[in-house]
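Quick note —
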Amino acid sequence: MNDVRELLQRVKEGSVSPEEAELLLRKKPFVELGFANIDTQREIRTGVPEIIYGAGKSAGMIDGILTAMQEEGQESILITKLSEEKAAVLSTRFSMQYDAVSKVAVVGPVREPDGIGRIVIVTAGTSDIPVAEEAYQTARFLGNEVVTVYDVGVAGLHRLLAKIDVLMSATVIIAIAGMEGALASVIGGLVDCPVIAVPSSVGYGASLNGLSALLAMINSCANGISVVNIDNGFGAAYQASLINHVRRKTASDGEENG
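Predicted structure written out below.
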């Protein structure tokens, strides 16, 4: 059940009884595993089910979390920051698609794109691709059409300008860059959609593992740019998906509500 609106619509249509809806809403909103509390009503509240952050958890812990989520009816589950070793263990028990570049795994089906447009992911260099692929896998999981444009940084600006048609087709752009982080500012001055900047930890000593790019992006003079944490492709994709799924109130909605 995606959200409360969908649940109420199903009650209205008769496919879910009021008693079933009441049971769902009154049900304990989390499952206690001792080492984790699984938020079983996150999708009802936010439209997106709980996602597993794989780093710092053992394969056994993730196994227990996955089992609990499936028992609660969650068909599709995203796991980020999952090592190849843990993925190999878990794939013996779960039907899993694993991408070694992004370290992202998907258990179950990926939903069809249902956003209002497309997300375009752009990287300054090839070294930024692991962060970009985390964003790509996340955005696809969340139901978005995604296009990638890699290795078009400001050291060869003509490469970016050659992709201007792709940039202009975006509902939202994720711009990923390390070193001086200039890519986001350049893109922000070219397009008419929101730009989400992701500083990457790529660069030599003075780049300070992405801190220089982070500060440059925060101080961008281009408008319409927001910034997430260093190497946070997941966070950028989640925000981009929210933008790409903005619901516009129609006149008929106003009549029904008013």
